[in-house]
Specification:
Blueprint lengths: L15 H18 L5 H4 L18 H9 L7 H22 L1 H22 L8 H16 L6 H15 L4 H18 L1 H23 L9
Helix pairs in contact: 1-4, 3-5, 4-5, 4-6, 5-8, 6-7, 6-8
Amino acid sequence: MPAKKHTKLKLSFSFPVTLYICFTALIIYLLDSTFVPSLIKNVFSVPASLRTTGGFDWKNVLDYLRLFFHVLGHSSWSSLVTNLAFILILAPNLEEQYGSGVLALMVLVCAFVSGILNVCFNPQPLCDSDGLVFMLVLVTSANYITKREMPLTAVVLIILFVLKNLVNTGDNEKIRALIHIAGGVCGSLLVFLAGEKSTVKRKTSKASAASRDGLFPAADE
């Protein structure tokens, strides 16, 4: 009898941006909760507005980095788990479709816009990746819109996200929610620039593969 082939199960790290965000956010939260208290408060949250005492300091280099770092910090364990669950579900498909570079750029734009808006308008520091989650939801929904479809689940998810952050919350929380939403919208706009490039790339690769397989006859000499 022929020997049975044993298939080995290998871990795949095909989505580096998604994994980096999730692992880094988890490590930061664990460090903040154990060995490095106030790590999130001092490094992984964007400062309050310029008009607030102890707000954004133009002379502090770290404050500029915090405009991007704040999406990796989370205020609570429930917030961390919820956001990471959405990211792990939605981000891999988008990273596969548009590439790691495009997804990373979308994350940076979302973080930067949220950070700038917080420095300008919010009297409280800001952290959490709510804006990233909203961006991923919008981009996933946009993929269906281009196919002239709009799944009801995507509509409900967007509505629930907005209601969760705006209804029955104080003024500061509403400002925070609007900042996350604005950052998510700005980050998602990049998908319209990258979408056609991805489509052309896929069409080109298919044509090349078909040509290599001999599906297209060679020109007559």
